[in-house]
Amino acid sequence: xxxxxxxxxxxxxxxxxxxxxxxxxxxxxxxxxxxxxxxxxxxxxxxxxxxxxxxxxxxxxxxxxxxxxxxxxxxxxxxxxxxxxxxxxxxxxxxxxxxxxxxxxxxxxxxxxxxxxxxxxxxxxxxxxxxxxxxxxxxxxxxxxxxxxxxxxxxxxxxxxxxxxxxxxxxxxxxxxxxxxxxxxxxxxxxxxxxxxxxxxxxxxxxxxxxxxxxxxxxxxxxxxxxxxxxxxxxxxxxxxx
Length: 242
What we know:
Layout: E1 5-6, H1 15-28, H2 41-48, H3 52-64, E2 68-71, E3 75-78, E4 93-94, E5 102-112, H4 115-120, E6 130-139, E7 142-152, H5 168-175, E8 180-191, H6 194-199, E9 207-217, E10 222-230, E11 236-237
């Protein structure tokens, strides 16, 4: 078992990108429909708590992606529903009324050997070392879930929490030469481990909703196995198809 690295930091998304992701999720949740006009920029910026310049940068990004249409003298309109290109396209937790800005805090990174997890990852050598990553997940700054993620250690000889991007899938794409192309989720309820209940300020042995996920890369290689425990009273699991 390798050295345990604890931190409360990770590389965060730029603020304008967070606004892009929030607007993606709000539109996906149906808060704004195709053809509907968004609030005026000054009001929207005030509601989001950001400067108008930051908001305009986010709107320009979404316009370049074809999600929004800015009409001179009229405002900004939803052009189409998101098509799955968002950073958090596979993040299925939303607030009870939909949407919510997702963020993550890396709690620890540890190199481990766990045969049961190696089996889940389809590794032939069950004693292959794995990177185990634990994170606390937020929606609109409220902690709603914890997650434990495992990947093959051979992607990086050294991995520290401070190196990880707030979006792990973005980190994979930028540093590990693959991206998660599809996932398989299994949702059930299970007793949360002690570290999870402690992070969520819950009683020991609390039963929580749980998502077990396998993630395949663009090369059709199984790359990631994870478990997410979430508080059902504070968020819900949503999957949409089109």
